[in-house]
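Provenance and format

Records in this collection were gathered into a single text stream. Each protein contributes a sequence line and a token line. The two records reproduced below are adjacent in the stream.
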Amino acid sequence: MKVLTQKELPNSQVFFEIRVEGEEFQKGLDAAYRKNAPKLSVHGFRKGKAPKNLVLKTYGVGILFDDAIGETYPAAYEQAITEAGVEPVDFPEISVLEINEEGYTFTATLTQKPAVKLGAYRGLSAYKPPVDVTDEEVEQEIEALRYRNSRLVDVEPRPVQKDDIVIIDYVGKLDGVPFDGGTAAAQQLVIGSGQFIPGFEDQIIGHTPGETFDIDVTFPEDYPADELAGKAVVFTISLHAIKKNEMPELDDEFAKDVSDSYNTVDDLRAGMKTAVQEYKVSQAERVFEDGLLSQIVENMEVEVPQVMIDRQIDGMVEDFGQRLQQQGINLETYLAMTKTEMADFRKNFAEPAENNVKTSLALEAIVKDADIDITEEEFNAELDKIAEQVKIESSKLVDMIDKAALGREIAVSKALKLVKDSATVLDKEPEKKPAKKTAKKAAKKAEEGEAEQAEATPKKTARKKKADAPEEAEKEAEKKPARKSTKKASAEE
């Protein structure tokens, strides 16, 4: 392999012109021949049995060129970028210029990690919220725990009231004809939850188990299913039962049931207090870290290639899709129900994706600037921690992981620790400076505008541009359409 040309291009791109010839190319031709020989026939010989020189005389060596290139260019490319110290962030564009029996020349154009010019990263200051745990917060956690351990029990027959849990069958009809997705059996519904379209739940109030009755409702104008949007329909309801959540008594037995660590209610309260405190400590630490990192990102100079942002968005969208799957719906269905194009949906993640990329680049730059290295002990300690989490022996795990990637993660963690250790903790939030019109503020303005529109147009709530788009998107996923199967969606909001 010989690099004929290497030059930097705009937008963090690098161009290589690479020559492969001699023994390297001959090995590629040999591998190509072994691959193709079983498919080549020569008169008088069975397929794959003719001598190599006779096959090549019959077909010409050119028949092997494509496969020979495929066999050799990846190693040549990897060697070229390694020797040049170039770190690509995407697959290269490969083009073969010329090829003959002696070898070939190809070009590779790739996007590399951009150069980062760091600003200050030591001696910064950021706000860290105080960590106070109140008795009320502890009791709220205990009540939530009791609720999670509650069971549904029947209520003596009486008229339905708000907040009741009812079990119903329903059949929806448009112009007297049942419509797709408008039928369900043994549906559990909390009256007043807003789970179903406006007017549906209210009209069940006052009815008694055993009744069958009709209710009239109109689908919202912006309902995702066009054939139902704005249409008046009739639902026939069969009310089977009223139920309630019966929560366990808060006593020592309950404490023992929820955890082997507790013997008494006092133990439970102490455990809940510790859990709340640990959560608030981690949240406070996150606020502190985010405050420091936002300063570092703001102070650094870097031109982020769009491909890096796109790859980050890809990961966020994939993560969101997985969260939707846990709600029983796929991403394609969700987009259809919310009438959102994929391109518009991806815009939700553009700002946080760019910030994530910049943050990663900043921390990697600090690793280099501060000469951060990792010891064998640090690597093994992290390996042991991962092994404990995944329940695999460290000795087995070491052969399954990307050691270089794990090493980078450890180094980045040390870089963040360096930043935090040198920083000052502020006990109150600094006053916000009157702003220059940054992209972030412009985005906030746009967000506010969209939020206003969303109040009048619920179907667009999935398109909000929040700083934490994945979290916001997850909340959207938990809303009505995503919690139910598509069969039930037509009766639900």
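Adjacent record:
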Amino acid sequence: MNTGFDNQKYLKMQSEHIKERIAQFGNKLYLEFGGKLFDDYHASRVLPGFQPDSKLNMLLQLKDQAEIVIVISADAIEKNKLRGDLGITYDLDVLRLIDAFQSIGLYVGSVVITQYAGQSAAEHFRERLSNLGIQSYLHYVIEGYPSNIDHIVSAYGYGKNDYIETSKPLVIVTAPGPGSGKMATCLSQLYHEHKRGIKAGYAKFETFPIWNLPLRHPVNVAYEAATADLNDVNMIDPFHLEAYGETTVNYNRDIEIFPVLNAMFEQISGYSPYKSPTDMGVNMAGNCITDDEVCRKASQQEIIRRYYQALYDQAKDRLGAKETVYKLELLMKQASIRIEDRKVVPAAMMRQENTNHPAVAIELPDGLILTGKTSDLLGASAAALLNALKTLGGIEHNRHLVSPASIEPIQTLKTDYLGSRNPRLHTDEILIALSASAADDANARLALSQLPKLKGCEVHSTVILSSVDENTFRKLGMHLTCEPVYETNKIFHR
């Protein structure tokens, strides 16, 4: 697949700028990390060449000086908010992140529950953290936030929040996803540090929106699509324009909160080190794009995927999904893209129309599109997956990699002994059967060896898939979208 981003250049430039910012403030720096630390798959999808763990690799160079504070919103806990890329709730992702950080030697100091207003789910989660030996703190809903600066920067605003005990000069503030309250947590700490006579600074590590790309550049529009459920909006930074006469891009929440940050710095040291939200960010991503057209096309595909995810959420009757669909439809119009621009969509729909059965289409790395249909033996996903592996391995299409005779006992197991109504093999089941065949069949072994080549491939299904098939595609690193319809007319779906 074509790349459009120089990851090594990015690591070098970003690391240098972080070190400069640490030196600027000296003793204590609260560094807000936007996006995902371990697995920023959004960035890797819209900036082909960006490695999902790039931010983490930079942190490891500073691990002796750094500690991690993980932030999660009480509302996200209460609403069981999901990470769409991993399919797990935000609270579970906090635990996953703690394990992941600690496994590589990064110290996790605590978890902060923000926007707390007595939510019972948040209380239960805090109790769970306590039972696991993890320190947690509460930050409260502040009346008049973010406009009433005098109230916010007072004993009745940030002053009500718990003071987070930290021990390292560099405090990395991160979260499972956007809208968690990372910036507010940093600002609250600056207030409390000042009250204790401790000098501290703040900087923001952010990837999107990219400040030195145009406002309506597809990369920036894709970020707006990714945060559509939060009602985030990319904007021209008015503070930067006024201070420097330079047009840069930021987003509404950072622009709204900037006067608060400015007022806090002025109270702490008599001046603000930043003249704009753009100033406070550390973001060299725009300087590391090597092929703008590749990144444009990748971002357009991401917008369409986000649209299909919103349609999926709407079909699942998830809260706020309808409004998210409307916003994404608008973003698609602004970006001049249609669902048909996602090549696997018309291919899958045409196969369904020709066979009158659900179908799945897969786009291989070279652009070739293969399809699979529902049959007596295989689901459409399993059929398409087998076809893709055959093509990648140069195996004749009519050659059986798994014999019908070996599939039938699996079907009997499913229906007669495990209580399944669907005898057709799912993707995980066909891969297990293929693995068994590989013991005696060279072609099956060859097909299995092609699995890594599926990473990054596009997939579209004409029906909503089972969780089993969804998870298999996700584990293979494939980008799945589905039409927002169920295969059956049942009113209960899992």
